[in-house]
Amino acid sequence: MLDPYYVAYTENLSKKTNTVIQPRVNQEIMDEVIQTYDIRNKVPVLKEIPTMILQGTKDMISPDDIRRTILKEIVRAQFIEFHESGHWMFMEEADKFNHVVNNFFEKIIRS
């Protein structure tokens, strides 16, 4: 099971709702990800819109070099790091996640 790779602390998995695993669906999703994951050629479009990048410090799925590459291309992007999270910062640090996302959109609405 991949779940422990998504969280910084395995006890946080207790917050996750159990779901039914559909191997065929998972395979189709992974096949598409493999074919379309490299979106570097689309990053310049993001230079023109408000962009926020969120990353858990302990994220094993989205390595730090991906973050650095994106931030180099989208220089106006706001970067927020979640120091107590893996890939699922929205679950592991839900209050912080909701706060920063809400603030990000409030600033856009006010501008």
Quick structural gist:
The protein has 111 residues and is mostly helical.
Number of strands: 2
Q: Which sequence of SSEs, written as H and E, runs from N to C?
A: HHHEHEHH
pLDDT below 50 for ≥5 consecutive residues: which ranges?
A: none
Largest sheet, order of strands side by side? 1-2
Mean pLDDT: 82
Task: Note the main attributes of this structure.
48% helix, single chain, globular
Architecture overview:
It is a single chain. It is built from six helices and two strands; from the N terminus they run H-H-H-E-H-E-H-H. The N and C termini lie far apart (44 Å). It has a domain at 41-111. The protein has helices at 3-6, 23-36, 43-46, 64-73, 89-92, 94-110, and strands spanning 52-56, 78-82. The protein is globular and about 40 Å long. With 111 residues, the chain is mainly alpha-helical. The chain has a two-stranded parallel ribbon.
Question: What order do the helices and strands come in, and which of them pair?
Answer:
Layout: H1 3-6, H2 23-36, H3 43-46, E1 52-56, H4 64-73, E2 78-82, H5 89-92, H6 94-110
